[in-house]
Amino acid sequence: MTDRHLPSARNVPALLAALHAERRSCAVLVSGVPGGVIHVRDGMAVGMDTPGAPGVEVLLLKSYRIAEDDWAAARAGGTDPARLALGLVSQGLLGAVELEVIGRSALFDAAFALALIRPDGWEVGDPRPVLDTGTAVPPGRLVTENTRRMSPLALERGATARFARDRLEPSPEARDPQRVARLSLRHRAVLTAADGRRTPRDIAFALGRGLFAVMLDLRDLLALGLLRPPSGAAVGRPSTAPRHPPHPATAAPSPSAAPLPRRKR
Q1: Is residue 1 in some structural domain?
Q2: Percent of the chain at pLDDT above 70?
Q3: Which of the residues 68, 87, 115, 161 has the least number of beta carbons within 10 Å of its own beta carbon?
């Protein structure tokens, strides 16, 4: 049910600031592409769901931090996201601090993905179930983090949003085995996944890494001359790329932007 008893807001950050001032608990439904849901508890952002960036489940499973069987076992207690979080910790699959770190990373990445688009609109409704990772971030912190992430990716207005839609492909220089061998494992994984059909979002989902971290690696590979825009690509066509990593063993996460090393039970 839409909440009509809210101060007027010119944009989503202003709306979140108003919710924070009133310590509201609700779900903000952002319409558009990709759109998403912002989960607010007592005025704090505790989670975001958007097809624009990998969530906690994708980060854990696609990066092989947690096996699918272990994830299914943790969900055996029911579909309540709060119970799922407790199951992950109680079964020793993740530490409570680890879960919070991963949840915060996913939250910041989702906020970044939503900041790349101009939403068609938004509405405020009743709270929705959300995986409780222990993360709670004030809206001002989201704005600060988005500003920090935009800075290294663009020198002109709108360039970051365009970059997020690009489908880059390997250049002829990428066929040089010596140049590729000098790359880090995570750069090699991104280079392999960038096949002219995948957007940065597709690559992030395929490798189980954050959208922002993948875009930084793509920027590096462009600067090295190992990637280029695809020749004859249809601008704006829907993505049809599969979201499975071509070589899982090479999909090593960035130490600063991905979940912690895989733990054996």
Answers
A1: no
A2: 82
A3: 68
What residues contact residue 235 under an 8 Å CB cut-off, 6+ apart? Answer: none
Task: Identify the band that residue 240 occupies on the pLDDT scale cut at 50, 70 and 90.
Answer: very low
Decide if 210 is inside a domain.
Answer: yes
Q: What is the SS3 assignment for 162?
A: helix
Burial class (CB in 10 A: 0-12, 13-18, 19+), 250: middle
Residue 188 shares a structural domain with residue 147: no
Using pLDDT thresholds of 50, 70 and 90, give the confidence band for residue 14: very high
- The confidence score (pLDDT) of residue 5 equals 58
pLDDT greater than 90 at residue 242: no
The tokens of 41 are what? 């508890």
**Beta bridge partner(s), residue 38:** 28, 48
Cα–Cα distance, 221 to 39 (Å, whole number): 35
Exposed / middle / buried, residue 70 (Cβ in 10 Å: 0-12, 13-18, 19+): buried
32 lies in some domain: yes
Hey, what are 122's tokens?
A: 């938004």
Q: Encoding tokens for residue 120?
A: 């068609």
pTM (whole model) above 0.70: yes
* Helix 12-21 / helix 139-150 crossing angle, nearest 10 deg: 150
pLDDT at 23 over 60: yes
Nearest C-alpha neighbor of 113 from the set 212, 183, 226 = 212
Residues 122, 74 share a domain: yes
d(CA 51, CA 58): 11
- Weakest-pLDDT range from 23-27, 65-69, 194-198, 221-225: 65-69
Question: 195: burial class by Cβ within 10 Å (0-12, 13-18, 19+)?
Answer: middle
